[in-house]
Amino acid sequence: LVASLEQVEQTYIMVKPDGVQRGLVGEIISRFERKGFKLTGLKLFQCPKELAEEHYKDLKTKSFYPTLIDYITSGPVVCMVWEGVGVVASARKLIGSTNPLQAEPGTIRGDLAVQTGRNVVHGSDSPENGKRETALWFKEGELYEWTPAQAPWLM
Ligand code: RTP
After folding, report:
1. How much is the ipTM here?
2. pTM of the full predicted structure?
3. Which of 8, 43, 99, 137 is deepest in the core (most CB within 10 A)?
4. According to the UniProt entry, what is the EC number of this protein (predicted)?
5. Which of 3, 4, 6, 22 minimizes the C-alpha distance to 113?
6. What is the pLDDT of residues 34-80, one digit of tens each?
């Protein structure tokens, strides 16, 4: 069964500075790869303050906002775009609850994190935000379309 193009979503996934510093980049990428999603963008990147503020603009009024901006800009992040049917919601499931203590074992945060303020990874929360965040973090020439050698039934 081949998915129609309209069903294919994209999501913006980011290994946060703590994930990079703890050597969890490969582990996190593996989980999305093994699930069967397609990587269409990938880079190591030092996020400027302005971009962090734009990315998290909906949280501007929250008390933890300044700490969050400091955290995200505290070291390089790994920016990724993953594509596939249902990838937005599926990635959120793979990632687990925002508070790692509430995240189920088997999820990235459930297995690898303890604190909300150091929860190792970000994932877009809707297909619209998947598009918005992809456009925010990647330039057009940095994204690639390619055909997987195996499992074409997943695409
Ligand atoms: P993300 O955007 O990183 O995937 O996280 P999320 O949707 O699960 O959570 P959201 O409510 O959008 O919060 C974004 C990030 O802000 C930090 N946070 N800190 N100290 C706190 O109470 C608190 N609450 C949220 C987390 O790093 C969270 O992922």
Report:
1. 0.92
2. 0.94
3. 137
4. 2.7.4.6
5. 22
6. 999 999 999 999 999 999 999 999 999 999 999 999 999 999 999 99
The residues pairing with 27 across neighbouring beta strands, listed in sequence order, are none
b/e code 113-126 from CB counts within 10 Å (16+ = b): beeeebbbbbbbee
SS (H, E, C) 95-140: HCCCCCCCCCECEHHHHHCCCHHHCCEEECCCHHHHHHHHHHHCCH
Cα–Cα distance between 54 and 112 in angstroms, integer?
Answer: 27
Instruction: Report which protein residue has its CA nearest ligand 1's atom 8.
Output: 98
Residue with token string 């990724």: 80
Query: For residue 122, what are the contacts with CB-CB under 8 A and spacing of at least 6?
Result: 12, 13, 14, 16
